[in-house]
Amino acid sequence: QVQLVESGGGLVQPGESLRLSCTTSGFTFSTYGMSWYRQFPGQERELVAFITSNSDRIHIPDFAQGRFTISRDNDKKTAYLDVNSVKPEDTAKYFCKAVHRYDGTTYWGQGTQVTVSS
Questions:
Q1: Are the beta carbons of 89 and 117 closer than 8 angstroms?
Q2: Partners of residue 78 on adjacent β-strands
Q3: Which residues pair with 47 in a beta bridge?
Q4: Which residues make beta-bridge pairs with 72?
Q5: Fewer beta carbons within 10 Å, N or C terminal of the chain?
Q6: pLDDT digit string (tens) for the chain, length 118 residues
Q7: What are phi and psi of 64, to 5 degrees?
Q8: Is residue 10 packed enough to be buried (19+ CB in 10 Å), middle (13-18) or exposed (0-12)?
Q9: pLDDT of amino acid 101
Q10: Would you state the pLDDT for residue 55?
Q11: 8 Å CB contact between 96 and 34
Q12: What pLDDT was estimated at residue 16?
């Protein structure tokens, strides 16, 4: 049974740092590229960060450059998203996604809510 479970969300104060985790099971994690997306109410999910299966390439969209960092631990089958200096506009539901490096098989987690407020 494939599972992707995001954790680390919650209420965060502006300026703080945040680490989200995506813990997986049920598939060969080391053969999947991992992404983090976020979704604002009523909007499509937007890509926040991507890392290849062996961490040799990372893509961070322009808006996330400088504050968002993606990493992974293949031994722990977990991907991470670190966010520095969170802002109220980072408030969203954050999802992780796994995509097989060859055949495109895709899995999504259920998401974790991040609320940035003082």
A1: no
A2: 23, 73
A3: 37
A4: 79
A5: N
A6: 999 999 999 999 999 999 999 999 999 999 999 999 999 999 999 999 999 999 999 999 999 999 999 999 999 999 999 999 999 999 999 999 999 999 999 999 999 999 999 9
A7: -100, -5
A8: exposed
A9: 95
A10: 96
A11: yes
A12: 97
Residue found by looking up tokens 């098989």 in the block: 105
Residue type, 28: T
- State the residue for tokens 């895709």: 106
Contacts of 83 (CB under 8 A, 6+ apart): 17, 18, 19, 20, 67, 68, 69, 90, 114
pLDDT of residue 88: 97
What are the residues whose beta carbons fall under 8 Å from the beta carbon of 68, sequence distance 6 or more?
36, 48, 49, 60, 81, 82, 83, 84
Residue positions counted in the chain? 118
Structure tokens at 5: 């479970």
Write the CB contacts of 17 (distance below 8 Å, at least 6 apart in sequence).
Answer: 82, 83, 84, 85, 86
- Secondary structure letter of residue 85 according to DSSP: S
Which token pair is 11? 């209420």
